Each structure stands twice: as C-alpha cells, then as structure tokens.
Amino acid sequence: MSTPLPSFAASASFADVPPPAVVEPETRRLDGTVREAYVPPLAPPVRRGSLADLPFDNAVAAPDAVVLSRRTPDGQWEDVTAARFAEEVLALAKGMIAEGLVPGDRLAIMARTTYEWTLLDFAAWAAGLVTVPVYPTSSVFQTRLLLQDSGAVALATETTAQAAMLGPELDHLPDLAHLWVVEKGHIGSLTELGTRVPDAEVSVRRGMLGPDSLATLIYTSGTTGRPKGCALTHGNFFAEVDNAIELLYPVFRATTGVEPSILLFLPMSHVFGRMVAIACVRARVRLGHAPSLKPDDLIPDLASFRPTCLLAIPYMLEKIFHAARAKAEAGGRAAAFDRAVSVAVRHAEAVEAQQAGTGRGPGRGLRTSRAFHDPFVYRKIRNALGGRVRYAICGGSPLGHHLAAFYGGAGIDIFEGYGLTETTAAVTVTPPQRPRLGTVGWPLPGTRIRIAADGEILVAGGQVLHGYWDRQAGGVVPAAPDGFLATGDLGALDDEGYLTITGRKKELLITAGGKSVAPAPLENWLRAHPLVSQCMVVGDRRPYVTALFTLDMEGIDHWRRMNGRHPVPPEQLVGDEETRAVLQRAVDEANRMVSRPESIRRFAILPRDFTEWEGHVTPSMKLRREVILRDFAAVVERLYAG
C-alpha cells in the first residue's frame, strides 16, 4: 500500500485544514550571483507501494467520494466514486492478466484525453505493467518507432481508424501481440474476460511494485533530435504530485461550498497532463476529461463541468485574451476593454508587491475600478471558462508578465511552472501568495535548481528520472549520474530564488559576428500579438537576425473587418503592406528588449501556419526548427539576399 499524505490530501474534508507555512528557498551565491536554490520537501518520501494502490486506497478511505466524472453519450457528466473506480480498475487489470500480459510488459495507449485513458493507466499499473503514451496525432512512422523502441506487447487505441493505420506496419512490430480498440468495446470485453482471474492475482502484482519500479516510458518530442524514452518510476510521480498537492493547496483543497475540480483537456500523452491526472486521483479531486480543444467542443464542456482550475499552455491563454478583445472591439468597446486590462494589470502588480512586502496593496480607487470592470470584462472571461475557474496551472513556455498580471487581476490566479518530461513535469512553480510575475516561480519543494557557468539549468530532486530507455542496452541507462540533470535550458535565479527562463542551449543562435542570441524571448513576445500565430527567429551563422511569421487568421480577419477590409486567404497577405506595417511595429517594440546585434532586421510572412501534421511543431506547440528551416529555406535565403 502507498503511504498516505500527512495532511489535507488524505483527509475526508479539506476545508478546515490550514495552508502550509511558506518555506522560502535556501540560496547559494557565487561571485555575487545566485547560482543555486533549494526548497525542502513538504511531503515525506513514499517508501513503499506504487501508483497502482491509489484507487484501492481511495476506495477504503472514502468510498463514496467523487473522484472522476465521465462524459455520457447524451453529453451529461456521470460521477464516478472512489469505490466504483477501484472496481473498474480491478476488473480491467484482471482482463489484461487473462490476456497473458506479465509484470513489466509495456502497454501503449493511443487516445485523446478521455476517461478511458486514466482507467487504462491505473489498470495497467495494477496488473504490474508499464504504460507508454502515444500521441493520437502521431504519424504511422512515429507510432511504429515508439512501439518498436519500447517493445510494447499491447496497444490500446481510441478509434478503429488509429488501429487500421497500423495495419501495414504490423510485420515490423513482432513484439505487438494485442491490439484493443476502445470504440469497439474492447475494454468491456477485457473486463468480461477477467472474471476468471481471482482478485488476489492483482493484489500479488501490486505487492510486487515499489517506488523504484518503472511506471511509464514517456518519449520526448524530439525537437532537438530523435525522441528519447524517459523512464519514470512510481516514486518519481509520488515526489512530484505529493509536493505539488501540498504547495498548490488552493487548487487541491475545498473552499466553503465549492469542491475543487479540474477539467483536463491537454494531451494525456504529455507528462504535464498525466501528472495532474494522477495528482487528482491522489488528492481525490474531481477530474474530468475533454478530448477536443476546438472551441465548439471545449466551451460546452467547460460550461457543463464548471471546473475550479484549468491546465493551460501560454498559447491557449493568449488566444482567449485576443478573442475577448476582438469581441469587445467588434461591439465598439475596445477602449473600455483596454482600460479594464490596465486596471487588472495594475491591481495584480499591487497585490504582488503587497505579498512580497514591498507595497501597500491596491488602493481604494484601484479596488473600485476593478469592481466596476468585473461584470463587463473579467466575469465574462471567467464565465466562458465555466464560471467557477479561480486558478490556472500554466506551463510549456513563459506566459509573460503582462498576460499573467491580467488574468490575476481578472480573478484567475496563474501558477506558472517549468519542467521537462525528464522531471515528471514541474521543477519550479509559482508559490501561492508569493507570485513573481514574469518568472516560473520557486523550486518545487524537494527540488534543487543550480545554474551552471554557461547559464544552463541543472535540476536535482525526487522527480528526476532514473534514466533513459535503451532497448539495445537491455533497459534503463542512467541520465544524471552525479545527481543533477542537465536540462538544456538557460535561465537565471534572482535574489529570492525565483527562476526566469532565458532560452534553450541548443537553440542559441551565434551570428556571423559572434553574437549569441536567445530566440525565445523575442519569439514569446511576438507570438502574443493578436495577428501572429507563430514566430521563429533565424540568424545562426548569419550576418544579422531575421524572423519568420505565420498569421492568426481569426485575428487577421477581425482586424480587416474593423478596418473595412474583406477577409482574404493567407497567401494573399504575404506581401500585403498594411499587414507588414502592423508586424513591423510589433518587431520594433520587441527590439527594444535587446541589443542592436540581437534585434530583428528583416522578417517574412509565410503563406501557411506551422502544423503538427507537417512536422513544424510538436503536440505541445514547440517549434521544430530544423524542419521549418528545411521547408522554408528559400524564404530564409531571400531574407539574406543582397
């Protein structure tokens, strides 16, 4: 059995449990600069048991507690109690055992964010298996690569089409002995098959697992090379989620009359979404799954589920903001919206200063202004997200000071974080009541952050992977033999231990003049513009820095309508002088952040967006620079012609 959390996460009622005391980072300096920050763990390490025990622990501790909700065919939400979830996990685990799967076998899961994903995950663990996420948008080649490398003996797909896609590849997958399709009712078939397996067999397999047992192989996105299988243990997840639950108590603790709930719509194939799903089960926070990010699908899900917290990436929060402003502008309320934004930002900054002990907080006039704008602007944004959202956990890339402050002032506190697949998601996170806008927070409790001489971020902690999967070497190859994982990212710690991300080591551009340029700050700034979908800065071994832009067509169409222009296809905007003039002003503004050698001198507008299908971006919207440079080589050469 797993070790229960010592505080609110193991309680039947969270409302009366006081928040933990703020534990500030311990910092170390070198040559006057903070080079290391460490926060002691808030949760004790788990010494026995595994994630497989969580459904059964919950069923004993609080059998009637609602731990999940699943979407029914008629669009309603059906609550799933702890007792029922444990029954379903047990039945499915027995079905996997009946099919002949043995402890240590790898089960790949290829599905969108659905209830069945979480059910398969926990059932596989209960059967002693190791799960391997596969993005449902993966190509045939990518899927075959992951299945071959992991040695998966079974694959569960969401749809018949996904299974059929692999038909021609089966000869190349000799290890794959089982193929189950959710929409064909195979989960029910497995459950029926498992009735001949005694419950005790599952108990025996669960008893064989411990914190050091391998839980999952999650493959990196491969933005800088071939995807690598990150071997994460049950203990890695416990170190991550237990400390996250304790630190982010507003997210995982009930308030008066409002039970916490999270609607998960980010891919469960990504470590971020997976970690939060596990944290919800661990803390018995009601979890829902939304399989589609399309507004026409997601907005009704938000309205009916009414979550108190969202998981998001900056790209999503930027688009929500731009859509709200475009709607206000279309209604002739752009000036009022902009005033409301200014008030929200100033209010959040005043609150931040007060919590840091450097200011008195929002004055009466600012509080009155915020209250005035709330029903006309802030509440509408909150209502669009379901009406009860109070918090958002944001990761993937920096959100930026201005947007984080706006959401905070609008009544949605943003907990920004930074992490990797190798670190089981977050290694830093914004601490409640101690935000530092524009940073990614402090080290997660139990984590040590070190900045190397060249600016690279090094990480040590219980959530850091034991190693990478190497089938040819016969298993897991250690990734951080000295205890510190080299992240490949560049950053800086301030005097109080807050981390700021400044770029990625392998993405540093070295101009022909020898100037080092980190593209991320410029790209993040420009991507936040309402007319921009994506931006990639170019300049490695070139005489100066340039940029490639793709357009946000919803933003472009709105802007053209507001200026009396008809919508046009994106290919007609490549040379449009008005569009270029707007982007030139954005570039000029961004260039103020950097020195002259780092500034963008020229740019090009591309006729189409970067897409995951064409390999330009990962499923989490990270740029695949080599692919983009290859596909748009002629455009880049024209930027440097003459």
From TrEMBL:
Keywords: Fatty acid metabolism, Ligase, Lipid metabolism. GO terms for molecular function: long-chain fatty acid-CoA ligase activity. InterPro entries: AMP-binding_CS, AMP-dep_synth/lig_dom, ANL_N_sf. GO terms for cellular component: membrane. SUPFAM superfamilies: Acetyl-CoA synthetase-like. It holds the Pfam family AMP-binding. It comes from the Bacteria. Residues 58-469 form the AMP-dependent synthetase/ligase domain. Belongs to the ATP-dependent AMP-binding enzyme family. This is Acyl-CoA synthetase. It comes from Streptomyces tagetis.
